[in-house]
Amino acid sequence: MQRDEQIFELIQAEKERQLHGLELIASENFVSNQVMEAAGSVLTNKYAEGYPGKRYYGGCEVVDEVEQIAIDRAKALFGAEYVNVQPHSGSQANTAVYHACLNPGDKILGFDLSHGGHLTHGSPVNFSGKLYNPVFYGVEEETGVLNYDKIQEIATKEQPKLIIAGASAYSRDIDFARFRVIADSVGAILMADISHPAGMIAKGILNDPMPHCHIVTTTTHKTLRGPRGGMIMMGKDFDNPFGITLKDGSLRKMSSLLDSAVFPGNQGGPLEHIIAAKAIAFGEALTDEFLHYQLQVKANAAALAKALVGKGYNIISGGTDNHCMLIDLRNKDISGKDAEQALVKADITVNKNMVPFDTRSPFVTSGIRIGAAAVTTRGLKEAEMEQIVELIDEVIMNYQDEAVLEAVADKVNALMADRPLFVA
Ligand code: PLP
């Protein structure tokens, strides 16, 4: 077979882009060489519908072991009693939870997308907003933080069946214990979506949802630094509260409902090459090195926020407890879209993002979201965060000046020269 140069040249071009640029997208990271190797391994050839020991295909002895190791490592990492490592993505993990817990039309209470939530938390353009009946909580306009008394009021009024605690662009720690009080007061199931801060939570740097939330979902590719994928966990298995009974009259356990919701409810064959890569990433995350990495991510994010505030940038909530922050650009006379485009020309990648109470459309927006997980993997520390803020500011203040953007790109390339994608 002839090598497909067209695609391999593009892969090389993307590698060069990643190597020479500054990656500040809060949801991205760089996996280790061994995670990459597993993701590109022969396991991609294997069909394995079902679960370890209960497959619908022959020849699954090896992948059974791989998947069980991934499950066991995730349990150890997060202190979970139940783990399903098969969801192909964070969205599919959330889809499976809703499928297991809800009927179409049931009410869900989630974090408003325009305030920092995720599409799968009830957005009208997503299945979660079309199939279910979403209501939302958001942040306070003055402070940019969640007001738990208001969330309680909304829950009491709306009586949702499922409450989602978690976000894509919220820089403050989440009070899962308080969310549980709210959920219990209305008899709702509480799901935490820790896709963004999962790596920090795993190492005890942020509040732990596992003792408080019935179900926890996550992606594996953000701060957790694994391959692109999703996962569902429970601290403790429980009887499903909505009365689906088995033949013997007993209630079906949530673990069994969740497993069925992933397969056959929502997916066919699992991606065993990705599950192997997840297992390796979980093994890496169990080490002390990963704790040091997460502490550096937190320190770098705090340094970015401090330097940005020092230059007059408005960070929603005034700072960050985790890896990310949302910058409101309304005092800088530039839209999120223009900022993103100018920064990309300077080899700095961020994403435009709605800010709470934004008056611009989601295609334009008034803000950008940045995060420190990927640049920390590249080996950058607090001093470089200050340099990065200088570079961002130069771009934003001169966003229509191509010469300035080119000059900043040269400085970015010099900063990132000789740094491998993954620094062990
Ligand atoms: N949940 C949250 C909070 C997220 O931030 C994301 C991704 O950005 C997802 C779910 C969905 O993950 P995926 O893109 O893997 O479907």
From TrEMBL:
Listed GO CC annotations: cytosol
Q: Which InterPro entries match?
A: PyrdxlP-dep_Trfase (IPR015424), PyrdxlP-dep_Trfase_major (IPR015421), PyrdxlP-dep_Trfase_small (IPR015422), Ser_HO-MeTrfase (IPR001085), Ser_HO-MeTrfase-like (IPR049943), Ser_HO-MeTrfase_PLP_BS (IPR019798), SHMT-like_dom (IPR039429)
Q: Sorted alphabetically, which Pfam families does this protein's record hold?
A: SHMT
Q: What is its EC number?
A: 2.1.2.1
Which cofactors does this protein require?
A: pyridoxal 5'-phosphate
Q: For site (Plays an important role in substrate specificity), what residue positions does UniProt give?
A: 221
Do the record's keywords include Transferase? yes
Which pathway is it part of?
One-carbon metabolism; tetrahydrofolate interconversion; Amino-acid biosynthesis; glycine biosynthesis; glycine from L-serine: step 1/1
Protein's cellular compartments: Cytoplasm
Tell me which SUPFAM superfamilies the record gives.
Answer: PLP-dependent transferases
Entry keywords, A to Z:
Amino-acid biosynthesis, Cytoplasm, One-carbon metabolism, Pyridoxal phosphate, Transferase
| Serine hydroxymethyltransferase-like domain: residues covered | 2-392
Mention one GO molecular function: glycine hydroxymethyltransferase activity
Reaction catalysed by this chain? (6R)-5,10-methylene-5,6,7,8-tetrahydrofolate + glycine + H2O = (6S)-5,6,7,8-tetrahydrofolate + L-serine
Q: Which domain of life is it from?
A: Bacteria
Q: How does it assemble?
A: Homodimer.
Q: Which HAMAP family does its entry note?
A: SHMT (MF_00051)
Name of the protein described by the UniProt record: Serine hydroxymethyltransferase
